[in-house]
Amino acid sequence: xxxxxxxxxxxxxxxxxxxxxxxxxxxxxxxxxxxxxxxxxxxxxxxxxxxxxxxxxxxxxxxxxxxxxxxxxxxxxxxxxxxxxxxxxxxxxxxxxxxxxxxxxxxxxxxxxxxxxxxxxxxxxxxxxxxxxxxxxxxxxxxxxxxxxxxxxxxxxxxxxxxxxxxxxxxxxxxxxxxxxxxxxxxxxxxxxxxxxxxxxxxxxxxxxxxxxxxxxxxxxxxxxxxxxxxxxxxxxxxxxxxxxxxxxxxxxxxxxxxxxxxxxxxxxxxxxxxxxxxxxxxxxxxxxxxxxxxxxxxxxxxxxxxxxxxxxxxxxxxxxxxxxxxxxxxxxxxxxxxxxxxxxxxxxxxxxxxxxxxxxxxxxxxxxxxxxxxxxxxxxxxxxxxxxxxxxxxxxxxxxxxxxxxxxxxxxxxxxxxxxxxxxxxxxxxxxxxxxxxxxxxxxxxxxxxxxxxxxxxxxxxxxxxxxxxxxxxxxxxxxxxxxxxxxxxxxxxxxxxxxxxxxxxxxxxxxxxxxxxxxxxxxxxxxxxxxxxxxxxxxxxxxxxxxxxxxxxxxxxxxxxxxxxxxxxxxxxxxxxxxxxxxxxxxxxxxxxxxxxxxxxxxxxxxxxxxxxxxxxxxxxxxxxxxxxxxxxxxxxxxxxxxxxxxxxxxxxxxxxxxxxxxxxxxxxxxxxxxxxxxxxxxxxxxxxxxxxxxxxxxxxx
Length: 704
Ligand code: ADP
Ligand code: MG
Description:
Layout: H1 21-30, H2 42-46, E1 52-55, E2 70-81, E3 92-98, E4 101-107, H3 112-118, E5 124-134, E6 137-141, E7 145-147, E8 158-161, H4 170-183, H5 193-199, H6 204-212, H7 225-251, H8 262-270, H9 277-291, E9 297-302, H10 308-321, E10 325-329, H11 333-350, E11 354-357, H12 363-375, E12 380-383, E13 397-403, H13 410-417, E14 426-431, H14 437-444, E15 448-452, E16 462-468, H15 472-484, E17 488-492, H16 500-518, E18 522-525, H17 531-542, E19 548-551, E20 564-569, H18 577-584, E21 594-600, H19 606-617, H20 621-632, H21 634-639, H22 657-673, H23 680-691, H24 695-703
Parallel strand pairs: 4-6, 9-14, 9-15, 10-12, 10-13, 11-12, 13-14, 16-21, 17-19, 17-20, 18-19, 20-21
Antiparallel strand pairs: 1-8, 2-3, 2-5, 3-4, 5-6, 5-7
């Protein structure tokens, strides 16, 4: 399948010298790997790009070395001056010189044998590191490099600096990166020659070399030509893969799925409300897609609380009416369970058999469930990523719904789609994030969109207010009064940048504090809890046994507790607008007047002020999304960092919107003129697809 010249890149990283089990563990933390990959591979090292360089090119004589700068010096070793025995604090010094002056190499807590081996008296060595003046003498403490004259090539004159993780040594990583680079094959060019020329971009191999083995510091800076080249490669691979998927969707006939309405009728009767006009329209669009003799790929976009779930349920019911099965996949366990619970009474009313499959279902019950799924005794399967597992086999999956799509990678979405009989199921993807067009393009290319534009009747506006941190006790006092009247409160603790552990600590602290002031009935929900504990806590809150739910952002997506009417967000200034909007959408679902309190630190930056003011002004998710884009710039949204979506290896993080549209057009042109990728460029492009692991697309492509 994969072209053999790429094999060395997909080998496990522990084939490299210096990479053993311990380093692998560290690499796992330092490298971003695509979903489903657990062991770092050579290619993951290649995509782990440096963020800067240390410049060791200055090679002055000792006399000319400038204190405070990094320099590489060629010196002769004169003498070792070990510290007196028993004095561990005194440094170990090695006197060296060149024809212009003296330089002391200084080691604290040195291992004597190591220093002696590295610096034999009478020989010459290159040493590289920071030169400092110490009284009258010039010295270098702990040189970064000590190499013999004949090994000079090992000394990286421009040393790339990589994102690190605690415990991983820079030298070990550098060495691994060098080996990874050595394994990178020279491949035939897949980009258009004139386009490369116009942009001044290097070849793929050259781009990698200029980043991992730079001889120009500018190459490693943001937006450099080698970076652009690789980002464009990735975007083009992505657009091509999507184009191929789309074509295969269109090409495969797919069977028309038509219901007779009898089950939907029963659900409609059991619903305590009538559908909004948008919900009706969306359903019509979805049903038209399903009934047509081609496969469906549609996005259902609707603000939080707009009622996507019931649309999904009714659409899934159509598939069941047609004698087939449907699946609903949610990004988290909590959500999957909640969907199952919401759907259960309605499904009962219609006689639908619903199953739930998450990572928690194990052993006998799981086997039984899978058995019933395979024999067609389950009509609707609700679950998490667990649905992707190989042994999850449907009797006849005709319709798959993915909730809150931005949490899933393209590969995962494709994988679910292929669980359908005859090569694919109709797909409906639901999201509350009004996705900007550019982002949609990266994820799907063109696809059809239904929008839920109205909120269900009876919704009350949510009063949103920003308040300074300093007034927190006052706020708590007011909340206490509200609780006495039956209110329920979400209290979201801040996102702390670097580590999850401190996220948790902050939440725990707040939980303890609120318990102290408000008494019993304050719960805590965080990502580190096991699933059973999470469910129990959510259930207690939903039942009203807990009055206040202190949570890290795990409640961000989809949770529905209509009685909850107050949302407090601590350090609201640290959240993105879209995220604030999502969080706020958890309240305002019942009959009580609802509030969203945005606690913030002082002083606020201008952007933060604008953001919070925007939240106070409007509840319109589309307006907010636009403003968000404007305030943060497209790049960040494109990189989708805020959702933890590691889909892009190179093209994330910076602003590549312009390159994206170019890649989009390019991919279209390529597939129009060479639909089977059989020309010379087509062959090269296949390699590109493999490089960026769009294997699923290639598989589909073959099937088509
Ligand atoms: P989201 O689009 O955020 O996923 P949900 O599907 O969770 O929204 O719906 C939010 C709430 O609105 C649920 O309690 C649901 O029962 C209710 N709901 C959905 N549609 C309507 C409607 N047409 N009228 C009244 N309530 C509705
Ligand atoms: Mg939802």
